[in-house]
Design brief:
About 55% of the residues lie in helices and about 10% in strands. It is α+β, with helices and mostly antiparallel strands and about 220 residues long. A four-stranded mixed beta sheet has the order 2-1-3-4, covered by helices on one side. Strand 3 and strand 4 form a beta hairpin. The radius of gyration is 17 Å and the shape is globular. The relative contact order is 0.17. Bound molecules: gamma-glutamyl[S-(2-iodobenzyl)cysteinyl]glycine (IBG). Gamma-glutamyl[S-(2-iodobenzyl)cysteinyl]glycine binds next to helix 3 and helix 9.
């Protein structure tokens, strides 16, 4: 029997949160090792388990996986959340990559000098570039691709919930996305992940930012 899945990352959302979401929806239990010190990171480096000297890293099925997108792909394929054929998959991947771009922008906010300005740019991008695409795809459809739950729906929900924390009315002009959101939060696995005490991480705080700076030994600042 395969061992337990173990996630190596900070005790915060960052690039690992989408992986946590996907595992939660696939109902896969996982443990987490949180990076808080430079020594922990150096130990991972000297153990040779970080292919590109970067986290996230996920121990799964006897492998040490890195590169967020590759990890997400593996989980999506393994748990049948990646469409039924090549054409479904390419649509899912396009929707997914759009969301990854948006989520990366959100993740950089705690490391920016002018967070309010950055958030306003993100809000505009979400409303004008990204959400119209998902709104249209969901017109007359329960899920984004092939009438079936996929990793793209999971990431859309993750992204929407993060943006609603900052802009509670952000879905007011997107009824189809809101309907998807309302349906998905009722799914038992999602409802469990949204409960307090689950492995879902809260919005970034100073402790998380300090840990990232300490581990990488740099004063990261994003534009
Ligand atoms: N392409 C990789 C992926 O998608 O997984 C990028 C991973 C990545 O950039 N990881 C960062 C890292 O390990 C940490 S998470 N950096 C060390 C290095 O030497 O490159 C992303 C991140 C955060 C905060 I959160 C600041 C900077 C990066």
């Amino acid at each position: 029997m395969a061992g337990k899945v173990v996630l190596h990352y900070f005790n915060g959302r960052g690039r690992m949160e989408s992986i946590r979401w996907l595992l939660a929806v696939a109902e896969v239990e996982f443990d987490e090792v949180f990076l808080t010190t430079r020594q922990q990171y150096e130990k991972l480096l000297s153990d040779g388990v970080l292919m590109f000297q970067q986290v996230p890293m996920v121990e799964i099925d006897g492998m040490n996986l890195v590169q967020t997108k590759a990890i997400l792909n593996y989980i999506a394929e393994k748990y049948n959340l990646h469409g039924k054929d090549l054409k479904d998959r390419v649509m899912i991947n396009m929707y997914w990559d759009g969301l990854i771009d948006l989520i990366k922008m959100i993740m950089s906010v705690p490391f920016t000098i002018d967070a309010t300005k950055k958030l306003n740019i993100i809000q505009t991008k979400a409303k004008e570039r990204y959400f119209p695409v998902y709104e249209k795809a969901l017109s007359g459809q329960i899920y984004l691709v092939g009438g079936k739950l996929s990793c793209a729906d999971v990431m859309l929900l993750e992204c929407v919930l993060m943006l609603e924390e900052k802009f509670p009315e952000i879905l007011s002009e997107f009824p189809n996305i809101k309907a998807l959101r309302d349906r998905m939060i009722q799914l038992p696995a999602v409802a469990r992940f949204l409960q307090p005490g689950s492995k879902r991480k809260p919005q970034s705080d100073e402790v998380y930012v300090k840990a990232v700076r300490e581990v990488f030994n740099v004063n990261l600042v994003f534009p």
